[in-house]
UniProtKB/TrEMBL annotation:
Gene3D superfamilies in alphabetical order: 3.40.630.30
Name by which UniProt lists this protein: FemAB family XrtA/PEP-CTERM system-associated protein
Organism whose genome encodes this protein: Novosphingobium aquae
Sections of the chain in a coiled coil: none
Domain of life: Bacteria
Domain BioF2-like acetyltransferase: 164-299
Annotated Pfam families: Acetyltransf_6
PANTHER family: LIPID II:GLYCINE GLYCYLTRANSFERASE
Length: 357
């Protein structure tokens, strides 16, 4: 009588995503995973490490010498918000990916690594979520994602936008505005200046410019900047990622004049056209907090919200980490930040924001 078949056990390793050999193996694994995002890539983890100082690491599961599970991580340090392991840092995606194996062992090891590194929290921003593991909380309604196919041509793209929002886009098209796209030193400087002003106006500290530079450097042709100008003055700008035929406007914003000029509306429409011309088939508008202004803005464009599922772990006896800028706890700080002179906000912001994760 034959003995029953026993699947080969999974072996776990903690790796450095900056290792070229490890990165190449992971890229091969991610190429076949339906749930893989740009934020699972070693390039993203290493960009975060280079741009913010938050270490990149990851847990890899192997069976028979082949990768069968991957948990990307950044070790986030903040004197204000505390320490955590984020999957992935400064990202709206990430989390555990598995291929025909149980990822529970990786989650257990992640918990152990968190305690070893004095990180009382872990955040998984998507991926395979823990099932019935102690200390984990699943969130299914806090954020929504927005994505839809791109239209076949420029006119069809305009007509795909609901009537009221289409009128705003038309107003932006009628203005004497111009578009520049690239990743040059000028493009980067202009984008950072516009983005920094935009987030200051929202009451949020700006990320270090080094983070944007690191992402552009490591993603190569899979990232670029689109900027809207009024004459020689930049009024709206967005840094986008490209992944599997989708464009993702990731870090974007506008100056005070952008609203009057409908520059943000023009920016996103121009990005749709640009993305289709470079071969993209879908537009991923990213995530927004459910019910927020950004949430309703994206719905006005005809995007339907899709609830996202995240998971968070808190070590026994530790308080739950709260770095949510929309939390009532931070309302006073946001109001104060909105009143800071831009030069002061730009100087202090990166020191705080690099610990937000």
């Amino acid at each position: 009588m034959n003995a029953p078949f026993r699947p080969e056990a999974i072996t776990l390793r903690l790796i450095d995503p900056a290792d070229a050999g490890e990165a190449a193996r992971l890229e091969g694994f991610l190429a076949d995973r339906p749930g893989a995002t740009p934020f699972h890539r070693p390039a993203w983890l290493c960009a975060v490490a280079a741009g913010t100082g938050n270490r990149a690491l990851g847990l890899i599961g192997e069976r028979g010498g082949a990768v069968c599970a991957w948990l990307p991580l950044n070790e986030i340090h903040s004197p204000i918000f505390g320490r955590m392991l984020a999957s992935s840092g400064f990202a709206v995606g990430g989390g555990l990916l598995t291929a025909g194996c149980d990822g529970d062992a990786l989650l257990a090891e992640a918990e152990r690594q968190a305690l070893m590194r004095s990180c009382p929290s872990i955040e998984l921003r998507g991926g395979d979520l823990p099932q019935d593991r102690a200390g984990w909380v699943i969130k299914t309604e806090s954020h929504c994602g927005f994505a839809r196919p791109l239209a076949a041509d420029d006119e069809a793209e305009l007509l795909a936008i609901p009537r009221k929002q289409r009128a705003e886009v038309r107003k932006g098209l009628e203005k004497n505005l111009r578009v520049e796209i690239g990743t040059s030193t000028k493009d980067r400087a202009v984008h950072y200046a516009v983005y920094a002003e935009s987030v200051r106006n929202l009451g949020t500290p700006v990320f270090p410019r080094a983070l944007f530079d690191a992402v552009l450097d490591r993603f190569g042709d899979a990232a670029d900047i689109l900027t809207i100008y009024e004459g020689e003055r930049p009024v709206a700008s967005v840094l986008s990622l490209y992944h599997r035929g989708a464009v993702m406007p990731y870090w974007g914003g506008g100056t005070w004049d952008a609203r009057r000029l409908r520059a943000n509306d023009r920016m996103y429409f121009e990005l749709m056209l640009h993305a289709r011309r470079r071969g993209c088939s879908s537009f991923d508008f990213g995530r927004s907090k459910t019910g927020s202004g950004a949430y309703h803005f994206k719905r006005n464009w005809g995007f339907e919200p899709e609830p996202l599922s995240y998971a968070a772990w808190t070590a026994p006896g530790q308080p739950v980490r709260d770095a949510d800028p929309t939390s009532a706890k931070h309302a006073m700080q946001i109001a104060v930040w909105q009143r800071l002179p831009l030069a002061v906000a730009n100087r202090l912001g990166p020191l705080i924001a690099k610990g937000l994760g």
